[in-house]
Amino acid sequence: MIEQYTINPNTLRLNFDLPSLPQQQLRLKRPKKNFTLPNQTLHPRNTWTYFWSPVIKDIVYGKILSKDNHSPHSLMMIIEHWIPTTMNIFRNQNNEHIPKSRDNTLQRCEGCNLHYPYYIADLRPKCIILQALDKSLDLKIKRKGTLPDNQNALLTRNLQKGSFCQTTKSHHTLRTLAYNDYLRIHQLLSPDITSTININMNDLSAESHQYPSSFLHFYFSLSFELIQYLYRFYNILSNFSFDQVIDIYTDGSCIFDQQQDMTMGLGWHVSRPVTPTPISFSGACKHFPSSTKAEAYAICTALIICPHQTTINIYTDSQYCINTFHNITQCLITPRRQLKIPNHHIWFVIMKIIKDNRLTVNLHKVKAHSDNEHNNKADALAKAGHTSSNLIELNKHHVPTNIHIVWDQHCDNITINHNIHHIAWDIGNRQKFYAWLNYKTNAALKTASFSQIVDWPSTERFFNFNPDNRPTSHKLTKFRAWQRKAINNLIPTMDIMSQRYPKLFQDVLNCWSCNLYPETNTSLWLCSINLEVLRPHIVRYTQDLQQYIR
Questions:
Q1: What is the pLDDT of residue 195?
Q2: Is the pLDDT of residue 122 over 70?
Q3: Percent of the chain scoring above 70 in pLDDT
Q4: Residue 157 parent element (H or E)
Q5: What is the mean pLDDT of the chain?
Q6: Which residue ranges does UniProt annotate as crossing the membrane (predicted)?
Q7: Backbone Cα Rg of the chain
């Protein structure tokens, strides 16, 4: 299956477009109306559009020939139908089967069932479509000067004549946007998305008189009390307009206590300007626990309370967050590599807040546990966040990305903001591991595992240990066989041998060393005589380990 449907078994990228496109609430741009008079017809130049057609169940591209407002309730436009070309003229033909990497090259349609037969203004276009202006989206086309050089002389002449054009976004991205816009217009979104959209719209309409547009709280799913709590800080800082520099100390905390529903703590406080009411915050976040995620959440929530066009100095003890912030803001990594950054959704929201409010943000490194008063206060707030009721979660319908993956096996509705290849690999490995634990021979091991008696990371390193320097050998083969037998309780003790060879070992069940108790895989390691043999080796390994640690 991997060889048939993926481009590379290592990256697991699909070689086809998904038949069922993801649903998401997006902010989209429509063609300009710019009518100045009633009953007016406009003929825009080099203006393009696209929309989702339920007739062909696919995206439709077109060049706008004219638009009119003869009917004020339904603005219409006439477009020339263009379709994606089947040949890849701008890239190497070896990449033609990659949906995401393929250039979206368009050519004129020679005629299809979408043609509007009552158009008589111009006979040169072969396929004309009549479409509502409010149900279409604005399409950006690359200029001819920005197109790559092409070695084919015939195709070069066609480009100069305008026989081909290329969109700025890929076909897969535009198809997803058009599909979601069609669902939103016809109210066909899934109940979860529809309810969230209605709630967000009601909240925005109810709070439009209360919260300014620069208070970007809608990027998070927050309670009403928490929104008011943060907005109070926003108002306090807005009154200090004479001081355009804000200093904030942030910190995150993560304690790996092996709980099923573990939370991370985050905290921050403002050290400058000095306000009559101290500005500090302590909260919690969930899912995919890590200290860097808690730190990123702390930075993101701290930026919410910062007024428009201010300079913010954020002091943190996380060098990883500083490096990630520098790489993203300075565009040192490609957008595709940005999606491989852990917690990339949080960093996208951070960049969006900085851009929307025109903030100038500088991150500074503070040495951890250096007895810095402000850093110690942020650390105490982060630790208190583990038990805080202020739960912080990103609003997945306002994340500034086109597509996000949601884990919803048990109605968890958890947005995955890590490298999706690694997440899929980890999920598959854990499913296989759980299936292995369900074997009847592993009943005791399963009980010990659920009781957290087995240290599986150390066990994994033990299985990767090679006592021989060579990659393959008879010694390594025997060692691997013994490892599998030991972990599965299949070492050929007398109880197992009597089951496999009942006639040969019918009356011989006791331990061959002490001859006192029946020999099993459990009693093998508890026999007093065997322990005397094993004790010198255990002592030697313990001494070697102590020497290695020192």
A1: 42
A2: yes
A3: 78
A4: helix 153-161
A5: 79
A6: none
A7: 32
CATH 3.30.40.230 fits 191-405, yes or no: no
DSSP bridge partners of 106: 84, 165
Nearest CA among 194, 172, 219, 471 for reference residue 357? 219
- Residue 25, CA distances (Å) to 181, 187, 195, 213, 221 in order: 8, 12, 11, 19, 15
Quick one: which of 208, 214, 210 has its CA closest to 355? 214
252: left (phi over 0), alpha (psi -120 to 50) or beta: beta
Q: Quick one: which of 381, 311, 308, 296 has its CA closest to 342?
A: 296
Q: What are the structural domain ranges in the chain?
A: 18-185, 191-405, 427-549
In the chain, the N- to C-terminal Cα span, in Å, equals: 49
Measured distance CA(232)–CA(99) in Å, rounded? 48
β-bridge partners, 61? 50, 82
Do residues 176 and 402 make contact, with C-beta atoms less than 8 angstroms apart? Answer: yes
The Cα–Cα gap between 488 and 436 comes to: 10
Token pair belonging to 385: 């966040």
For the chain, give the longest Cα–Cα distance.
106
Neighbouring CB atoms inside 10 A of 321's CB total: 25
Q: Do residues 140 and 169 touch, judged by C-beta distance below 8 A? A: yes
pTM of structure: 0.52
Q: Which helix (H) or strand (E) holds 445?
A: helix 443-450
Count of beta carbons in the 10 Å neighbourhood of residue 205: 9
Measured in degrees and rounded to the nearest 5, phi and psi for residue 478 equal -65, -35
Give me 117's structure tokens. 């037969």
189: DSSP letter = S
**Following DSSP, what letter does each residue of 111-151 receive, concatenated?**
--TT--TT--S-SS-S-EEEEEGGG-EEE-B--GGGSPP-S
Geometric angle at alpha carbon 44, from 41 and 48, rounded to 5°: 120
β-strands 280-286, 263-272: how paired?
Answer: antiparallel
CA 71 to the chain's CA centroid: 44
